[in-house]
């Protein structure tokens, strides 16, 4: 999974002039939508999962998440819940990359950064590629001309393969969060199948 190695819910960061929430985005198998109260248990599971957070700073204790998680978690611009047959299986996020962090493609930083996490039972079925491609299509329409970047640990082979499939190309590697990070930007070509 890709995104900042933070073990807390992402903070709301202004994306720019986008209408939020957008209408749900439908793919062949999935719906990308705004979060709802029914997603709370899946959010807790996502953040408590050691498998999901192996490359994201570690899982949080379930009891802590149960206490801290809002009734409707993840309701913010840039966060899509990934819904399969009426149940949340993951999320795709867009945030502004903090200018103080390493890895940028423009001098002022704050590029749009793609992040994603999926529950382990959803892995290996192509849902991440399908959801991320749809979300990237939305982003290209909503924020035309904005560079989209992705950062993941080089040790995360699944995330590295997904980045390539989505059309991201390496810009640089650096050490952050005590691990080697791969930083890429989405090239203007269409993602490969």
Automatic annotation (TrEMBL):
Locate the N-acetyltransferase domain: which residues? 30-188
InterPro entries attached here? Acyl_CoA_acyltransferase, GNAT_dom, N-acetyltransferase
Q: Which Gene3D superfamilies match?
A: 3.40.630.30
Q: Which SUPFAM superfamilies match?
A: Acyl-CoA N-acyltransferases (Nat)
Would you tell me the protein name for this molecule? GNAT family N-acetyltransferase
| Source organism of this protein record | Streptomyces venetus
């Amino acid at each position: 999974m890709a995104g900042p190695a933070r073990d807390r819910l992402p903070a709301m960061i202004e994306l720019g002039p986008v209408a939020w929430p957008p209408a749900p985005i439908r793919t062949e198998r999935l719906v990308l939508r705004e979060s709802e109260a029914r997603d709370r248990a899946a959010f807790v599971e996502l953040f408590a999962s050691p498998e999901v957070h192996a490359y994201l700073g570690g899982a949080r204790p379930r009891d802590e998440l149960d206490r801290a998680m809002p009734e409707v978690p993840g309701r913010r611009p840039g966060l899509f819940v990934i819904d399969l047959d009426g149940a949340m299986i993951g999320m795709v996020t867009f945030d502004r990359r903090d200018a103080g962090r390493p890895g940028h493609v423009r001098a002022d930083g704050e590029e749009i950064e793609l992040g994603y996490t999926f529950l382990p039972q959803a892995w290996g079925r192509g849902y991440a590629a399908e959801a991320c491609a749809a979300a990237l299509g939305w982003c290209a329409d909503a924020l035309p001309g904005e560079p989209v970047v992705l950062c993941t640990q080089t040790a995360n082979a699944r995330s590295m393969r997904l980045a390539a499939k989505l059309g991201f190309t390496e810009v640089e590697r650096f050490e952050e969060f005590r691990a080697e990070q791969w930083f890429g930007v989405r090239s203007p070509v269409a993602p490969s199948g």
